[in-house]
Every structure is written in C-alpha cells, then in structure tokens.
Amino acid sequence: MSQKSSCRKEKAKLVKWLGRELSIQLEELLGFVDHGIELGWPQEEGDAVKTGMRALYQNVRSLRSTEKTAAVRRANAAVAAQAEQAAQQRVAEPLGPGESAVAKPPYRKGRRAADDYWGADNIFVDHPVLKPGDPCPCGCGGRVYAKKKPKVDFRFRGGIPIRLKIYRRRKLRCNLCGKTYKPKLPKKAGKRRYSASATAIATYLRYGQGMPLNRLSSLQGHLGIPIAIATQFALALEGAIKLLPIYVESLSQATQAQQLGTDDTKGRVLKYNRPEELADRTGVHTTCTVVQKTQEGHQLAIFCTGPQHAGENLDDLLENRYQHLDPVLVMCDVLSRNSPKRRLSEGVKILMANCLAHGRRKFVDIAASFPIECLHVLEELGTVYLHDKQAKDLKLDPEARLVYHQIHSQPIMDSLKQWMEQLLTENRIEENSRLGQAFSYMLNRWDKLTLFLRQPGALLDNNGVERALKLAVRHRKNSLFYQTERGALVGDIYMSLIQTCQLNGVNPIEYLTICLQNARRLDASPGDWMPWSFKATLQRLRAGPNQSELRVAA
Predict the structure, then answer these.
(1) Going edge to edge, which strands form the sheet with 300-306?
(2) Which residues contact 465 (CB under 8 A, 6 or more apart)?
(3) Are 435 and 332 in contact (CB under 8 A)?
(4) Cα(306)–Cα(273) distance, rounded to whole angstroms?
(5) What whole-number distance in Å separates Cα of residue 308 and Cα of residue 169?
(6) Cβ(438)–Cβ(362) below 8 Å
(7) Which of 59, 292, 425, 431 has a beta carbon 3.0–4.6 Å from 259's, enabling a disulfide?
(8) What is the 3-state secondary structure (H, E, C) of 76-140?
C-alpha cells in the first residue's frame, strides 16, 4: 500500500471518530490560544499556531475518496460559489451541426434476468393436474393454454468452490482362487483425480481474486472437503506448464503490437537469483504491459515479475520487433524507468505518450489550497474526457476519432496551455509553489500528454494498465510474497491469462478449464487457443472427423 493511500485511510478514521465535534473542538482550541495571548503569549506566535490549526482542520475536512471533479468541489465548499461563477463565465463550445450530446442510459432497477444466470441449474416444474388444452377448472367453458414465458422463481443456495464426488466401487473376491473383481468407473467420472475445472477455480481464486492458498484450504476444510496447500500449488504448477505456450504466444503477439501501455509496482520474492548485471539491485518489481491493439485488433495483458523495471522489460519485449512495422505507441507515466531507453537508442520507431490522468492528479491533490485555478483545469480536462467518451460511443475509427478530438478538444487544450503560460509569465503564480509546479509538470511534458491530438489511436491516459495492476497489488496485499522465482512465474502466467480474458469479455474460469482439457492441442498451435479464438477452434474440432467431448468440466 502506498504512503498516500495509507494517509487517506488514517484521515478517514479520524473524520469518522470525531464527526461533527471536529469543528467544536477547533473553536475550543482557538479559544485556548486567544486566552494564552491575553495572558502574555506573543501575538505572532499565537497567530502562527492558529494558522496551523486551521490548515490541519481544512486538510482533514477536505478528505475525498475519489479524484472526481465533483468530489473535489464538495471538499472545497467554502469557495464553490466563486468557482461556479467563474465556470459559468466560460461558455462551453457547442457541438457541430448534426451532432448531439450522448444521452444518459435508461434507468434500470438492477434486477437481473433469468438468462443472465447461465451457470444455474434450470428445473422445469409442470402443473400437477392441468395440461395445455384441458378445460378451465373455474367452469367458464374455456380451455387453458401454455404461455411462452414461464413463471420464474429464484432460490439461492450456498456452495463449495471445489466439489468432490466419491465413487465407492464394490469389490468381489473369490474364496477359492482369491481373484478380486471390481466394476469400472463411469465414463463421466473422468481419468484424473483433480479435473481441469478444479484447477481453473483454484487458480482463479488465487491469482484472479487474491485468495491465499491457506485461506482457500481453510474454507474447503470448513465445508467438509479439505485440500492441502501443497496440493493447490501442485495443481497450479502443473496447469502453468500446460498454459505456458499461450503465455509465450502472447509475448510474440505483443512484440508486433501497434499500441502498448506499461507500468510496474512493487513485487516480493523471497528467494530470487539475480543475474550478475543486476546483482547490485535489491528490489523486485511486477511489470504489467497491456497491449491495447494487436495486429488482429485484440487486447493483451502480460505480467512479468523480476528485478527489472517496466522500461527494461519493454526493451526486451521489443527486441524482435519487425523493422518494417509502423511506429509503436507506448503509453506510460513520466518516470524515466518506464521508457524503453535501449530500443530508443537503437532507432526503433517508438512514439512516447504520457498519462494525462497523472497530470490531472497534481491539481486534485492541491485543490484545497488553489480551488479556483484547480477546478478550472479539472473542468477543462473533464470536457476533453467527455469528448473521448462521445467518440467511443459513436464507435469512431482511430482516424475519425483523431479528427473529432482536433475539432472539439484541440481548442480547449490550446486555451488551457496559453492560460497556464500566461499566469507563469506574468508572475501571477509563484513558479516554486505547488500550483506552479503542477503547471510546470503539464507544460514541460505537453507534447507527450497531448499525443492523442496528433496521432490516430493514441490514448489519453494509462488507466487501463493501472486497473490491470490491481491483480498484482491484490495478490501482494493478501499473500505478501512469492516464495521462489518459479512461484512468481506461475503467478505471471495466470494473471496474464485472467486479465486478458477480462479485457476481451471472456469468462476466465471457462477459458482456463477448456485450455487445460485440451493441453496437447494447445501445445501444437497456441495461436488457435487465445481468448478471442478458442471458441471458434472448439466449433471446428467438433465439426471435424475426430470429434471429442470438448466442454467445461462439471
């Protein structure tokens, strides 16, 4: 957990404890200072103490749980009226002819349809007496008929993540020759002690939801089906070996991708054998690289845990990139360790973009001290993000999206840049103040922050990678560390496949189950078993001459 998030949690606890009494206690403390001044305390020291108390009070009361503009505005209610008046003076740019704002989605009560529960057991209950065509029991003379939609009732029951079926086969023994006879297992029992679905569910809970092995073992034990920790990791290791060809295929496709985003977070491996060139490093990092668009137009997520930073891992990834391809778009934050320095020095065609959300966060953090200026920046950037959402809703291709941003977002960004430069040039903002530093952060990286205004397909921020990294952060929070390099590699394989499934709208448990069931076919042609192509491969195999039962195991 970062230091900033830890501080926010402590503030939240403080606000929860004190509640309304916070303002009363502040007034009482200020009264004590005034009483001290009356008794001879120097006026300047008293005023300094009162200023510090008010600043601390404002810092605690301005607590926010999100970075949304509305949350920042609520946290600065004292100057919200001034900011609102200044915002009303800025006329929003109207949409072009024939264009309209995106309508809000219709209100939904939140109840799910029965078809949404595709994993439920459907039990059809017929009427015990009546059948279609029978006379109506009320005596009206009519006849009953079957309606198209049945009456649907839900009954939820608790279950077990990993279920168990015990087959007890009767054994017969001859009392003369001693020969033993026993029946064969039913075909549906399968040949393996632990089916592919058991491995898929255990690994999804471990690496997709962050449930430690001992926690799952305890849960299974309380439900009457204990599974040892060593058994769980043995299943995960065996499955990772089978899924390794898909992980390698993902690396190969990412090498030739059109657009990448990368970032890293802290990782923990107790026993890691570092290479000689990295022997002086003590830290371990988990890098996540999200391929926003492969050559086939799909998304990929690749995790890699080791001593290298995100930029160095990206250098290794682009090592075998074809020279004739168009420049690759790389989105990352401004840290130098996240850029592929080695490939840039070798002349590989790379277009670097920086995350606009990181620049926006600079103003969110100081909004309590400079509310009017920061809210102006947040509202202008919010309009740009609205334009990007409208382009997505209209399903514009990259070229049309670029034109849309150039028409609607370019004037806003140009005006924002001119406004910040003017405030700094005219010394209306101290350059070394926190607001001046936020302005300098944006202006010094303006070209990389606004690449979406010049390059088709360029994103505004790196939020997709930040969301994907939550898998690694959740694992680190719950499980604390990996024991060895092998355990880290197993985690990287499963996290990569699980996140790739989520990016492409695929059920990760179903995908892992089917891939583990067809490990031999997968090893021969891993490209046919990617999350976006495995269902078509299944249909082709079912229609072929050598049909086999290819389904999600029970």
Answers:
(1) 300-306, 284-293, 259-267, 328-332, 350-354
(2) 261, 262, 263, 288, 289, 290, 331
(3) no
(4) 10
(5) 55
(6) yes
(7) 292
(8) CHHHHHHHHHHHHHCCCCCCCCCCCCCCCCCCCCCCCCHHHCCCCCCCCCCCCCCCCCCECCCCC
- Whole-angstrom distance, CA of residue 401 vs CA of residue 378: 22
Q: Which amino acid is at 306?
A: G
Using CA atoms in the order 232, 234, 237, 243, what is the torsion angle rounded to 10 degrees? -80
Distance, CA of 286 to CA of 493 (rounded, Å): 12
Distance CA 298, CA 500 (A): 9
Cα–Cα distance measured from residue 292 to residue 282, given in angstroms and rounded to the nearest whole number: 32
* CA 36, 37, 42, 46 torsion-angle sign: positive
DSSP 186: P
CB 135 within 8 A of CB 143: yes
Q: What percent of the chain has pLDDT over 90?
A: 38
Note the pLDDT tens digit of each residue in 342-375: 776 666 788 889 999 999 999 988 888 888 888 8
Residue identified by tokens 């028409």 is: 407
Count of residues in the chain: 554
* Cβ within 8 Å of residue 479, ≥6 positions away: 210, 212, 213
Model pLDDT for residues 493-548, shown as the tens digit of each residue: 999 999 999 999 999 999 999 999 999 999 999 999 999 999 999 988 888 766 55
Give me the amino acid identity at 99: E
